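Here is the promised in-class demo. Please do not try to memorize the tokens; focus on the logic of going from shape to residues.
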């Protein structure tokens, strides 16, 4: 992945644009849901999909019965975007209201992963992306489940991040106005686990979920 897009230059505020690999990877790693956009027969689509980063690639998956997932896996040009909302920025004027956020837009092509072992490893990586350590606490995909699933490897060719952080950027002429201004932070947190109705009473909370609750949030 180049440090700066060559073919798909995203026009973004110079003060907020970033093309550093470490920043782009960190934004991907902080999430699990992306919107994947592409065109099929002249019709644009944007599909929400779970993902897992693997180096400079993203792993995606979907039903083998999905025509669109199949087309995506055959190498048509695609765009993947991820955004995290971190807070509301409330200014003294309507014009200067904003939000703090981290976002990344990546361009590339996907290919279908056919090897059974590679597909199984990719699905395990998905599970561990949702909750680190969970893959070893659950049954791996069997042959029929692998056959029913498309696993795609989306190679990131170009990418651009955009980040807004910090406080209010009011017009100096507005700073004396009698209106509250500041930032309202936004955090996503997990609630108390709800055991499945059929779960045996002898099965306790797994370590992966316990660690998740100790951490207190999805991502910081």
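The designed amino acids, position by position:
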């Amino acid at each position: 992945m180049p440090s700066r897009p060559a073919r798909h230059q995203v026009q973004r505020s110079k003060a907020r644009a970033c093309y550093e690999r470490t920043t782009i990877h960190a934004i991907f790693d902080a999430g699990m849901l992306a919107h994947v956009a592409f065109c099929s027969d002249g019709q644009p689509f944007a599909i929400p999909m779970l993902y897992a980063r693997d180096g400079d690639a993203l792993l995606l998956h979907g039903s083998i019965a999905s025509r669109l997932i199949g087309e995506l896996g055959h190498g048509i040009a695609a765009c993947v975007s991820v955004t995290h909302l971190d807070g509301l920025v409330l200014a003294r004027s309507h014009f200067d209201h904003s939000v703090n956020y981290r976002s990344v837009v990546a361009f590339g092509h996907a290919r279908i992963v056919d090897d059974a072992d590679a597909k199984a490893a990719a699905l395990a990586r998905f599970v561990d992306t949702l909750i680190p350590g969970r893959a070893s606490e659950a049954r791996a995909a069997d042959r029929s489940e692998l056959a029913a699933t498309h696993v795609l490897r989306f190679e990131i060719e170009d990418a651009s991040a955009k980040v807004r952080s910090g406080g209010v950027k009011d017009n100096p002429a507005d700073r004396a106005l009698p209106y509250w201004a500041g930032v309202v932070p936004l955090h996503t947190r997990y609630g108390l686990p709800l055991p499945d109705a059929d779960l045996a009473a002898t099965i306790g909370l797994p370590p992966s979920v316990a660690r998740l609750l100790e951490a207190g949030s999805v991502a910081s």
